[in-house]
Amino acid sequence: MIRVLASDGMEASAVAKLRELGYEVVEQFYEPEELAQKVKEYDVLVVRSATKVRVPVIDSAADGGKLKLVIRGGVGVDNIDVKYAEEKGITVRNTPNASSASVAELAIGHMFSLSRFIGIANATMREGAWNKKKYEGTEIAGKTLGLIGMGRIARETAKRAYALGMKIIYTRRSGKCCELPEEWKYVSMDELLKSADFVSLHMPAPADKKPIFTKEVFEMMKPTAFLVNTARGVLIDEDALCDALDNGTIAGAALDVFAEEPTKNERLCKHPKVSITPHIGGSTKEAQSRIGEEIVDIITGFFK
Question: Among residues 48, 232, 271, 290, which one is catalytic?
Fold first, then answer.
């Protein structure tokens, strides 16, 4: 019997489907040292973002010779040493299609939160304040959304923003996309930073793990601009961001991801110009169902 360890849990219908097909599924989280031992007992390891599949775990799994497949239930695989795993004969897969719409909707939601003070107004009203005159917002229709990266989530975000009347510009390392609507304009990184009213990040973590958005980058943005990050926390220098918000270098920021998770950065979490959520981009019932379906398809296809 093929054994599957879902270390960060799995959607119930996916577990039921796999068991129905004859797979053994165990839902149990292990700390790294214990995981390195337990993983030897399984053919498949399914993780979300909490479990880190690093060299010691991979070495142990390779020594055991049983583990053949690691699946990241979600888009990013930053928590897995992918190249090393594959060098050891362990296949790594993810579920890139399942949560794109959910993350895109959260990005749009954060744009509304920033432009209309939804988050901070909610907080201050709970404290008894009535800041009606203080929270004069701005409409997002007619504003320019700059997307850094143009993968699945960025495209879903752009579709929704365009339908709301926003102008779309984008940049990416590999250049212009030929299959996108003509109205979506490819620009350089510098031009995007200087002209976008909202900058939304949709890029992987850099290989060196050093922030892309530093003091110098914030200074290139418009003082009325908002930054939205639903991609990778490491992309942003969090101290530099707080400084930029304090100095009025940019108008606000929305974050669903952080350099350290759970984040302990109180300055960031309590900043009045920040709309903040605890990495819930893919946390919708619909996305979880699709992730589960993709995981089942990957496992059953792999072990045909």
Answer: 232
